[in-house]
Amino acid sequence: MRKDPINDNALLSRGKKPLGIYVHIPFCIRKCLYCDFLSAPSDDATRESYVNALLAEIDAQAPLYEGFQVHTVFFGGGTPSLLMPEQTATILERLYQRFSFLPEKEMEITLEANPGTLTEEKLRAWRKAGVNRLSIGLQSAHDEELKSLGRIHTWKEFLWGYEAARRAGFSNLNIDLMSALPGQSVESWMDTLENVVELRPEHISAYSLIIEEGTPFYDWYGPQDAASEERQIGERKPLPSEEEDRLMYERTGEYLAKKGYGRYEISNYALPGFACRHNLSYWERTDYAGFGLGAASLRENVRWSNTAELAEYLAHAGQTGEETRIKKEMTRLSIQDQMEEFMFLGLRKTEGVSASAFERLFGKPLEAVYEEPVERLIREGLLLRYRKADGSVFFRLSARGIDVSNYALAMFLF
Q1: Among the listed ranges 29-33, 273-277, 399-403, which one has the minimum average pLDDT value?
Q2: Distance separating alpha carbons of residues 319 and 302, to the nearest angstrom
Q3: What is the DSSP string of 147-178?
Q4: pLDDT for 218-238, tens place per residue?
Q5: pLDDT tens sequence across 166-196
Q6: Environment class of 56 (CB within 10 Å of its CB; exposed 0-12, middle 13-18, buried 19+)
Q7: In this structure, what are the phi and psi dihedrals at residue 69, rounded to the nearest 5 degrees?
Q8: CA–CA separation, 413 vs 207, rounded Å?
Q9: CA distance readout (Å), 371 to 180, 340, 378
Q10: How far is Cα 164 from Cα 180, in angstroms, rounded to an integer?
């Protein structure tokens, strides 16, 4: 458990801005065949050097956030659960020492975990260190589908890890699932969903497979051209059709709603009170500090990302100041940039965006700034204007709008 945080209840500062912290762990045992994230296999020495660099970056950058108070922490990757439990505890301890935090009972601290890396020791140690939310990457309940993705675990291993997490005291669990997999049918997807719901996790993230350039899946399933005609796919199973993909998505929402899971974002579902606060902070444009290789940050409408080069990060993570060697692509967002983000991030939520919040932030009515796209999308049945019980006006995507969300959200780009 953390020691002597700088924000004991008696010392809590009032009026501080909320802050989310993201810690990127770019390591994995083996890269999945569909993955284009910034991650790669590593040895023990590299991971230890990386943790030391993370600590140095936290020390160097913390002074920039003196007017903020941390509400959420998220360990993402890669595979954060690959670290030794004492390494994760050390990172959390340093964050508590350098930042102002909410009281422990009000914090949300999430760690992403691969079922193939879980142990009783790790789970107990994470819980003791303050991690109170675990996000377990299952993807499918069918071993053949897991194998086709290049996953390192089986359904049975996931079940053991899930029950072990409960035994360790985790009462807030998310399960990541993926639809439209090679060889997957609507029936096998629903079987996965039913098996997971039977476990009663507090949160379910259900994403459709996207074929990303630079991955083995892109070589096998990407656009055909003259150069790719001779690709040997062999016995690889075909992807579901677009119609099957859409049907999987529709049935997911219907089934989970019947089981008590509310959809609060395009691909995220939760039991009441268990929406992921960290991810909501992204969609609501709350400031966040990213630590680690390639991690992104947003502070007072300035956005940047850290270098994606491991050697450069390890060498310069401890540099202080707003502009350092590891910070790349620093951009001060214009008012138009901020308006765009307010809309296309906020409309990912099923609640949508608040007209009064838009006007409060930007000094102009939403419907005046976006008159043409709002009218067009409402006319096309893709956007809904509605009032809450308190009379406040909101805009949200309709069911059809969610189906074509890329098209609808692009309408709000200047």
Answers
A1: 29-33
A2: 19
A3: HHHT-S--HHHHHHHHHHHHHTT---EEEEEE
A4: 888 887 543 444 444 445 788
A5: 999 999 999 999 999 999 999 999 999 999 9
A6: middle
A7: -130, 130
A8: 24
A9: 36, 14, 11
A10: 29
